Amino acid sequence: MSISSEHKALGKQVTGVLHTLSPIVELNVGGEMYTTTLSTLKKHPGSKLAEMFTGQPKLRTDSEGRFFIDRPGVYFKYILEYLRSNQVPTQCIQDVYKEALFYDIEPLIKQLEDSPQIFGELVARKQFLARVPNYSENIELMIRIARAEAVASRHSSVIVCVVRTEEDAARCQDALNSLDMDKKSVVKFGPWKAAPSISDLLDCIQMDVEAKGYKISFQPHIAEKGFRVKSHDFFYKFLFTWW
């Protein structure tokens, strides 16, 4: 039998397995083994998970014949628990939310989005950061500057200018004009029209840089000389620690 014929035969075999599948299904999800029922997996017909087990098979099998899903297996137990009993997980909310999005289980997605953790992130924090001009780009700029200064060093420092209002932005620019250093190396955040304070934004910056795997801290940056305004009103030093 040719290789092509073997593949066709194998495809027919797997198709037949799905069509005549026992109610019990064995899964290998990222190396974690699960046993459940076909009806549980297809509980929400419009979901990607249900689609995986509908019609033409879309999954490979491992060496033991278990259907393989290349996702973090440790969180799949929460997905299964929801499908079995409608129990919304209370642990690992952020990670389970990512898996619910992947499997496109709309009822679970909506319930997780109502949880304090996801609601706070999606509605409160991200909506605030969306009002801070070029926030994501500035985070990436900070990281690029820090990495450029990391050669043969334990620490890198990045100066950040944070202004909440247009008036503060003008004062910050005045300070930058008198700053005895390369202005291009100062990363500017703001202004913004939202309730959170400068302290809140600084916490967000630290949170998002640390989420990328960096160890970081910050403190007010006080210039020794040359400033026409109090530098600690706007300027902060973020310290990256490499080892």
From TrEMBL:
Q: State the superkingdom.
A: Eukaryota
Q: Which residues cross the membrane?
A: none
Q: Name one Pfam family in it.
A: KCTD_C
Xref: Gene3D superfamilies: Potassium Channel Kv1.1, Chain A (3.30.710.10)
What name goes with this protein? BTB/POZ domain-containing protein KCTD14
Domain BTB stretches: 23-120
Q: Which GO terms describe its biological process?
A: protein homooligomerization
**Organism of origin:** Patagioenas fasciata monilis
Q: Which CDD domains match?
A: BTB_POZ_KCTD14
